[in-house]
Design a protein that fits this description.
Blueprint lengths: L1 E5 L8 H23 L4 E2 L4 E2 L2 E7 L9 H13 L3 E7 L1 H7 L4 H9 L6 E8 L2 E7 L16 E10 L8 E9 L3 H17 L1 H7 L3 E3 L8 E3 L1 H20 L3 E2 L5 E3 L1 H6 L1 H4 L8 E3 L2 E5 L4 H8 L11 E10 L15 E11 L4 H18 L5 E6 L9 H17 L4 E4 L9 E7 L5 E10 L2 H4 L4 E2 L5 E2 L2 E10 H12 L12 E5 L5 H12 L5 E3 L6 H10 L4 E5 L1 H6 L1 E6 L4 E9 H13 L6
Parallel strand pairs: 12-16, 18-19, 25-26, 25-27
Antiparallel strand pairs: 1-5, 2-4, 3-4, 4-9, 5-6, 6-7, 8-9, 10-11, 13-15, 14-15, 16-17, 17-24, 18-20, 20-21, 21-24, 22-23, 27-28, 28-29
Helix pairs in contact: 1-2, 6-14, 11-12
Length: 599
């Protein structure tokens, strides 16, 4: 038995919810088109996602991007036929009958709890059903509500059924859909800009880093240009930490497995840790996080309340297992350097320390040019340790710190670490994309497990509170975000090449080298373009390398001790586009020392 109702009879929601309904409806149209063009196709799942939709298929033959135009054409034919989306409520037996021969649908039906409503959406033309799928909906009422010029199929990928590498590999077709062709055009323009800024592309073009699968997946090789940027970031990072009362630690890369057994990570995080190695008949683990080592330093001697708070930071390289399918350039790797810190404090100091960490984090992000920042308060997850009262008190301290900074925030229900609640800071880049970066995590688990104590003013041994803090997250991921935010055109203070001196001809190579030496003596990063190429080609090459300042020197400059200054965007700098070399050096040094975001 089944109960039928026309979809979309209620008014559709506005904004993002309406777009989700449109995209879900277009995904069904795509699935109908695919099964029409490729008889024998088995259909898996097809949800709407951010900015689009996808569907997974088990196809009778492999398809490529060359097949997408034909699928789009069939989709437009279906839309033009003005098919209704009709919702049916069916029992389990009816559902299995309808999807006999569809193994993925039958598996989903078998997993539904007894008594749960099973809904099917049919596409029908002239009252005759032409295609159907197991689906919760909702959908539009009719395909005429889809603008045939407002969708596009984007790409094809492989995807394991249910994300399980042991299950069948399916073909996933991604698409995007919008309310109007104008919206689609704007989105495609956005994607074009995203592609231009892709850190993997720019990383190669600007010779910043590489990944060598044959030597190990998910591991980053920093090239000289990338190394220059990393040094600038690290030097700044260290200086700011010392200014803010931190001390810097260095700890080993491996440790005995009991460290992570004691911390609880082997119980909660084992799938992301590498297998133990045997050394001297003892199990050692390559470190996935730094905190147990910092605790070892804390326990090296007795601590008094007078010693607290202790703020300890480390640029510690850690290793975590990620499936090969999720590795993504600099953004998802297996080895990375965490800009880690741990704060050990008394309970009375906790709220002030959290607020200070938050202030410090916001200041750092603004210096790097990120001003649109939002906080998320992550609460207790299903699997966790510690009494509820301590979770509540810790979460309240985090909330007060965020509110004291006047920040907008949302609650991330169940998003905390197993050992305590946390604040996540998400930044928006130049394209308006949100990235989760800074994490400030409260921990009352490890001080207990490692029996950490301090002697309080009353002479009693008490537990310190512990705060984990990763400010940039990891240098690798931060570098990827930074590349895309600036499109590779970094602020002068972190640019790998800050200045290029370009002689107009071979005759002025000596003056160019002398100018470069003078600038290098001021700790500026300078190259000399003294090859035998043409001037315009040299300038174009430096622009492609996104060098902030190009100093063109010829007869007039050599005679007057000046440089003609061209910015990477083509503008000229200085009165008459010329400046004394010493004056330019002062100008550039001030831009670097002030960490200016503008040339």
């Amino acid at each position: 038995m089944s109960h039928q109702e026309k979809s979309g009879e209620k008014q559709l929601p506005e904004g993002s919810e309406r777009l989700a309904v449109i995209r879900h409806s277009v995904s069904h149209v795509m699935a109908q088109a695919v099964t029409t063009l490729f008889p024998g196709t088995k259909v898996a799942i097809g949800p709407s996602i951010e900015n689009g939709f996808y569907y997974d298929f088990d196809l009778p033959r492999p398809i490529t991007a060359e097949d997408l135009p034909a699928i789009e054409a069939e989709m437009k034919r279906i839309i033009d036929s003005k098919q209704d989306f009709t919702r049916l409520s069916v029992n389990r037996e009816e559902a299995k009958r309808r999807f006999a021969g569809e193994p993925f649908k039958l598996e989903l039906i078998d997993e539904l709890p007894e008594g749960e409503e099973i809904s099917v959406y049919e596409n029908s033309a002239g009252g005759t059903a032409v295609w159907a799928d197991l689906c919760r909906g909702p959908h539009l009422a009719n395909t005429r509500e889809i603008h045939s010029g407002a969708f596009k199929l984007m790409n094809i990928a492989g995807a394991y059924w249910r994300g399980d590498e042991k299950r069948p590999m399916l073909t996933r077709i991604y698409g995007t859909a919008w309310e109007s062709p104008k919206d689609l055009k704007a989105h495609l323009a956005f994607l074009e800009e995203v592609e231009k800024r892709d850190h993997r592309r720019l990383g190669k073009d600007l010779d910043l880093y590489s990944i060598h699968e044959e030597a190990g997946a998910g591991l980053i090789y920093w090239h000289p240009n990338g190394g220059r940027i990393r040094v600038a970031i690290e030097d700044f990072w260290r200086k700011e930490h010392y200014r803010n009362g931190y001390e810097i630690l260095y700890t080993p890369h491996i440790g005995k497995s009991w460290l992570w057994e004691t911390s609880g990570h082997l119980g909660f995080y084992k799938s992301n840790m590498y297998s133990p190695m045997e050394i001297d008949k003892q199990d050692y683990i390559i470190k996935p996080m730094n905190c147990p080592f910092h605790i070892m330093i804390y326990k090296n001697k007795g601590r008094s309340y007078r010693d607290l708070p202790l703020r300890w930071a480390e640029l510690g390289t850690v290793y975590r297992y990620e499936r090969s399918g999720v590795l993504h350039g600099l953004l998802r790797v297996r080895g990375f350097t965490q800009d880690d810190a741990h704060i050990f404090c008394t309970p009375d100091q906790m709220e002030g320390e959290i607020r200070e960490v938050l202030r410090f984090s916001l200041n750092i992000w603004k210096i790097f040019g990120f001003k649109d920042i939002k906080a998320y308060l992550a609460t207790k997850p299903a699997e966790s340790v510690g009494e509820q009262s301590r979770w509540d008190a810790a979460l309240e301290s985090l909330r007060k710190a965020v509110e004291a900074e006047g920040m907008a925030y949302e609650i991330d229900e169940g998003g905390g670490a197993f050992y305590g609640p946390k604040i996540d800071l998400k930044i928006k880049d130049a394209l308006g994309r949100e990235w989760q970066m800074t994490t400030i995590q409260f921990d009352f688990n490890e001080p207990e497990r490692f029996d950490m104590t301090f002697v309080d003013a009353d002479g009693q041994h008490k537990r310190p509170y512990m705060v984990h803090r990763a400010l940039l997250g990891s240098l690798e991921r931060f570098f990827g975000v930074l590349i895309e935010h600036y499109g590779g055109a970094f602020p002068v203070w972190i640019a790998p090449e800050q200045i290029a001196v370009i002689p107009v001809s071979e005759s002025f190579n000596d003056y160019a080298r002398k100018t470069a030496a003078e600038l290098r003596s001021r700790d500026l990063r300078v190259s000399v373009e003294d090859d035998d190429g043409r001037l315009n080609a040299k300038i174009r090459n430096c622009q492609n390398r996104k060098i902030p300042y190009m100093l063109v020197v010829g007869e007039r400059e050599a005679n007057e001790g000046t440089v003609s200054i061209r910015l990477r965007d083509g503008r000229q700098l200085g009165e008459g586009a010329s400046m004394k070399t010493a004056d330019f050096a002062d100008y550039a040094v001030e831009k670097v020392s002030s960490r200016s975001l503008e040339p």
